[in-house]
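Question (not urgent): is this output format expected?
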Amino acid sequence: MAKFDKKNYLDIEKIIRDGERVLYKENINEEYSHDELGNAHSAPDIVVKALTTEEVSSIARYAYENEIPLTVRGSGTGLVGACVPVCGGIVLDVSQMNKILELDEENLTITVEPGVLLMELAQFVTEHDLFYPPDPGEKTATIGGNISTNAGGMRAVKYGVTRDYVRHLEVVLPDGRIVNFGGKIVKNSSGYALKDLMVGSEGTLGIITKATLKLLPLPKKTVSLLIPFKNISKAIGTVPKIIKAKCIPTAVEFMQKEVIEDAESYLGSKFPDSTSDAYLLLKFDGNSKEEIENYYDDTAKICLENGAIDIFISDTDERDETIWKARGAFLEAIKNSTTDMDEVDVVVPRSSVNEMVEFSHALQKQVGARIKCFGHAGDGNLHIYVLKDDLGEREWVEKLNSAMNEMYKKAKELNGEVSGEHGIGFAKKAYLARSLDSANIELMRGIKKVFDPKNILNPNKLF
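Got this back:
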């Protein structure tokens, strides 16, 4: 790939015609060199803040013709370095492409630009008595970023993940061509599913400039259950029985006392109960209290029969906010409790969640570093964090690599995958290579070459 120079900068300024949206050298904010977790650092040569599909197309065409690396960025809330420009070149910031373009209540769809924030979308559709189910923990993430990583979140157990709600994508290819995949149609058997291929591709195949998303009617009633258990084994062991009983929870989260205490310290407020070692947190939704009462009554009975200490019912907005605000703060709370950390985002079959959690607990002694975890017991996605604390840099790297290798090895033994929702990016690509056979990697490389023969779009990611 070509080295970026001042001529390239002047050429790009002519394309954009707005110097305030073209950042060069000392004008580039340091935040563009990393994402939320910050374990991968690399500065871009230039940052371009795009406002239109046409600008994105022009920049992509220029990068393609001059063989300059091009990395797309939204809010930068990722955790695997997917938006970090590890080869330098151009960072294309699409966060200002943040318009809600159309709400189609007849077809139950909404069309947005990629920079719309998840929390903005959720609030907008709620005001129209509609519901966008995907619910990743980071509400300031952009929709484009959610689509690029196929984000999941807490409601995946009932409603599925981002891919299940993407109907149409407008995409700029690496050479600048603008294409459309999918539409407002509900069914489609017309050739390869290129739209679905874009979802989860982490900005390596094309640049999303518009998305049409499926909506549902807004549930009228929600109820949460906070259920303490004596230990994490009993808590997680109850989840398959809840699922088998067809109680249809919207979310099934597991958490332990030490993480709750981190959240209490971080938020400066008390959790409704933190006396037990382990908890399940469940949510149910529906159109009436009667509709969901049977579900959560049956769930409560199952939990009590399988070792639950008590059942706390949260049926008011105030109680719900207290509980779910604490749950939403777990990542930041753990970060705040240590000097540095890294995350494992494995997903395993639901029946293997407890074994994976117990393994991570035992691994602390083996590697000599603190390890904390929480996650989505209902869909098998665990967030496991290795903490640096006061370890020296060399010792930290050795212990972190050892812990990571052992956890990904265990996940593979349990028929799991490297990432459930955060993606591979730059940080996890070595583990992906070990978890997949050569045929899988070869096919992915072939797809990348078809879309991006010059390898300019978010290079050195995934594999």
